[in-house]
Amino acid sequence: MYVSLALFVVITSYIAVVIVRWALKRHKRHNLFKRYGIPGPKTSLATGNMNQLKSGPIPSHVITSWLKEYGDVFGYFLGDMPYLVVKDLEMIKQDFHVFSNRQDIFLDMKPFNKTVVHLKDKRWKEVRSFLSPTFSPGKLKLMTDIVNKKVDITLDIVEKHAQKNEMFDLYELVQGLTLDVIADCALAMKTHCQENPKDIFLIA
Question: Is the dihedral of CA 141, 145, 149, 155 positive or negative?
Fold first, then answer.
C-alpha cells in the first residue's frame, strides 16, 4: 500500500512539474510581442487567440477589429505560434524581402510542396519572376473580352429564371462561370459549365 502511495505521489509530482514547466514556457512565449513593445489581444495559455478568432463570422472580421483597436502593427498567437499583422505599407515595402515566405502548410508532400504557395526564399522569387509577366496588366486586358462573354451568358441565364419567376442555384451558376473563364483563359478550352450542369469539366 505504501509503495502504491509513494508511486502515486511520484507520478503526480512529475506530471505537476511537467505542466508547470509547460505553462511557464508558454507564458514566456506569449510575452514575445510584449517584450518588443508590440501591442495585441490578451492570450489564452492553451489556445493563444484562437478562440477569439473563431468568435466572429470569419477570422478577417476579428483581425479588422484588432487593427482598429491596436493600430497598424500588432501581434497575436495561434497556440504558441506568433503572427505579426502589419498594415503599414511603407514598412511592408521596406522589409518584405526578409519575410517573403508563407507559413508552412500541413500538406507538405509531393507534388503539393512544389506549388507556388509552398515555395520559399530564392526558389519562390525565381518562379514569381517567371509567372509575373503572365499576369501583367496588358495580358489581363486581353482576357477582358473572354470574361465579358462568359458573364453575358450568366446574365442571360439569370434573366430567363427571372422571367419565369423561378428559383435557381446561384452558387452552381457562379461555379460554372468560374470554370468557363478558367478553361478559356488558362487552357484555351471551350466549355459550357453554365448552360450544362453536367459538363464533364464541371463534374470532374
Answer: positive
**Residue 186 pLDDT more than 70?**
yes
Amino acid occupying residue 72: D
- Name which of 8, 39, 37, 43 is nearest 23 in CA terms: 43
The CA–CA distances, whole Å, from 171 to 76, 177, 179, 200, 201 equal 34, 10, 12, 18, 16
Q: Where are the domains of the chain?
A: 1-99, 136-202
The shares of helix, strand and coil residues in the chain, as percent rounded to the nearest 5, are 60, 5, 30
Check: CB of residue 83 under 8 Å from CB of residue 94: no
Read off the pLDDT of residues 130-183 as tens digits, 9 standing for 90 and up.
Answer: 888 878 888 888 889 999 999 999 999 999 999 999 888 888 899 999 999 999
All cell numbers assigned to 157: 441565364
Q: Is 111 exposed, middle or buried (0-12, 13-18, 19+ CB in 10 A)?
A: exposed
Instruction: Please check the confidence at residue 110 and state whether its pLDDT lies above 80.
Output: no
Amino acid identity of residue 43, one-letter, is: T
